[in-house]
Structure formats: structure tokens, C-alpha cells
Amino acid sequence: MKKKLVLFLSLMLAFSMALAGCSDSSSSGGSSEGGSKGSKGDKLEIFSWWTGAGEEDGLKALLKLFDEKNPDIPVQNAAVAGGAGTNAKAVLASRMQGNDPPATFQVHGGAELNSGWVAADKMEPLNDLYEKEGWKDKFPQSLIDMVSKDGNIYSVPVNIHRGNVLWYNKKVFADNGITPPKTFDEFFAAADKLKKAGVTPLSLGDKEPWTATMLFENILVGTMGVEDYGKLWTGEIPLDDAKVKESAEIFKKMLGYVNEDHSSRNWQDASQMVGKGEAAMNVMGDWAKGYFVNDLKLKTNEDFGYITTPGTEGKFVVITDTFGLPKGVKKPEDVKKFLSVLGSVEGQDAFNPLKGSIPARTDADQSKYDEYGKQTIADFGKAELAASLAHGSAAPEGFLTKVNQAVNIFVTQKDVNQFIDSLKAASGDLKK
Ligand code: GAL
């Protein structure tokens, strides 16, 4: 109840901020931020949810590079705090509806872009920019497909995040004689051992419910495989399928091993528990690596280790952050200049090593990436790719909102039948 109230209040706050036309520009940014409000000023508004720990370093580097290359185009960093766009998406929706789009905004490839803003006729095609920059064979076709609809390309991917990573504290594993679990059985064996030793096996921070939805989507991929997981969102496999129930049972069992205060923590808090050795494992996208390294000053493969989540070896849950050109912006040519920098090798290599993601381009400079990055680049090239539900790529926003609500209730009530019923009831929104 309390959690719902907090969520409701934060949404209200986001909406009132939007109405007042004062999206948060105070957080960080390039050398040229600040000043004007909304798109009414002269500055090029770059809208995202990358503020604070683990999120903003990559963006700052990109804005700095843009400023170096285009000193005559002032930029405003219009980021709105909240993981996975919890608040930013609401602010953006209200601005788009009011025909006050930012110059460009963070949007996930897949349904969030195509069934959302493109279907609503709010985006300009970028085919000419792709031609001019020679990008068509520089981005993998799988990504170009995620940002295309009816033969037109609508945004430029800045990165690829992996969503199916289990992060663990190396010392806690070593002290307890545990090796990284590859299967659900191995995971539960490790979790039991850790629990007996008095260590929190799995950290969770679901103050914003998307983190729990992510955990569930990983279980779905691990249980069903990539192809059948994909069929859930096209309606070819119903949401009350036996494998979904099995996944819900596993999810319920996993929730028996998480920190008690999970509902008052965010994703950074949960990652921090692993970083500090207060918990052994955490399931999170690889923005957590950016946070471990940049903010907690931990060393990859020394302080923390990583493995694909149980059952997902050879599979890659894809989250791609992209930026496009909304219809009706004042200076479309300046926006394209920003997109050109974001889509360049230099831009991608300034952003991604700090963000924890890998470059979306296939010709980036791999020497700029650490061991984790190099391995992830190699994995992406050969893995089976699954679009993330929790991050808006697999299914329309309306459906995702209902799934997040269902997950949020499940985390406290742990009623599998009720959960499956809610998922099934939401499936009407899959087509919208
Ligand atoms: C995702 C986004 C990532 C990261 C994460 C946590 O939706 O794609 O770049 O920011 O949310 O906020």
C-alpha cells in the first residue's frame, strides 16, 4: 500500500513537473547546459533518464564530445531521474501530447519506439541520415530492425545493454565455496548454502517495480528459451502457458532469498549490496557494471564477477537505448548533428565504456572496453537475441505497465494463480 502511494506520488510529481515545463536540467550535463526551459529556448534539449550514480557518466562524455565538435550549438541536458525511465517516460508522454517535444529523447528500440511514438506519427524517418553517414552496414541488421517500421528507420542506437547478467561478489563466493550458478538448480543450491551461512543470497531493489519484472523476464528466457519467450508477446503462446507458470513458481522461490528491505531500495542500492559484500548476487542489466566501476571503484573480475542468469547461456537479452528526431522540433538539422555524433565510432566509444554497455556499431574500437565489454561484444555476435520486456522492447507500453503492476503485487502476495490471471488479463494490451 505504502509503496503504491510512493509510486503514485512520484508519477504525480513527474506530471506536474511536465505541466510546469520545468523538466530537470540541473543534473550534470555537458559544458553548455542550463538556462532555457523546455524546447522554447534555443538550446538543444537532450532528454533521457540518465542522472546520478551509474547513469550519467556516459551521457556527460557524449555531451562533451558534441560540444567540442559543435561549439556553436548549445545543449541542455534535460534528464529526469528514475531508473528505466520510471518518471521520464511520463514527463515525455505529457510533452509529446502537448506538442512540446524535446529536440531528441532516449527511447528503447522495438515496441517502445515503433508501437509508441512512430505509430502515433510523432517521429521523422532518418533514412537520409543513415545514407549520408553510411550507417546501414555499420549497425547490426538486428538493431536496425528494432528501430525501423514499414521500411523507414526512426532512431539511432547509442548502445547495447545486456539484460541477462547475474553479478556476484567474488569474495563472498570464494568464502562460501560457491561457483557461479548456470542452472536454476545450481542457483538454489548456492542460495541455500549462503542463507545457512547468514549471507543474503540475492539482492533486489524493487522500489521501482521494473527491477522485479527484469528478474521475471530472465526466468522466462531461462525456462522457455528465446523463441518461445518471443512468442509470448506475439500472442502465439498464451500467458497462462505451463512454462509461464513454472517460471512464476521459480520467481516465487527466488523471492524467498532476497533482502527483506527490497521494496525500499532502488537498483543502485541492490547493486551496492553485492559490491559491498552484503549480498552475494544480483540480477541486473550491465549498467550495473558502470556503477560498480565508476561509482563504487570496484575492479571487474577481481571484486565482482558475472555470469549469464540461470538457463540463459548463449542467449542475450537486448536493451538498446536510441535517439530519434521528433516531428515539430525547431532545429531538425541541429538534432541530426547530435545524432551524427552519437552514431559515430567516436561518440559510441566515448559513451559506452563508461555506461557499461557495448557499442551498437560493429566497427568500434574494442581496445577501449574492459574484459567484460570485450566478452559481451563477442557474445552479442553469436548469441540468440531476446528483446527485453521490462525495458519496453518486446511489447507495447500499456501492456508493460500492467505487467509491472502484476509483478509488484506478486512480490508481496506471492500468489502464482492470481499473478498468471493478471498477466492473462493484460494480454489484450499486447496488440495496442
Ligand atoms: C534502462 C536503460 C539503461 C539504464 C537503465 C537503468 O531502461 O536502457 O540505459 O539507464 O534503464 O535506468
TrEMBL record:
It holds the Pfam family SBP_bac_1. Residues 1-20 form the signal peptide. GO terms for cellular component: cell envelope. The keyword Transport applies. Gene3D superfamilies: Periplasmic binding protein-like II. Transmembrane segments: none annotated. It comes from the Bacteria. It is found in: Cell envelope. Keywords: Signal, Transport. InterPro entries: Bact_solute-bd_prot1, SBP. Belongs to the bacterial solute-binding protein 1 family. Part of a binding-protein-dependent transport system for a sugar. This is Probable sugar-binding periplasmic protein.
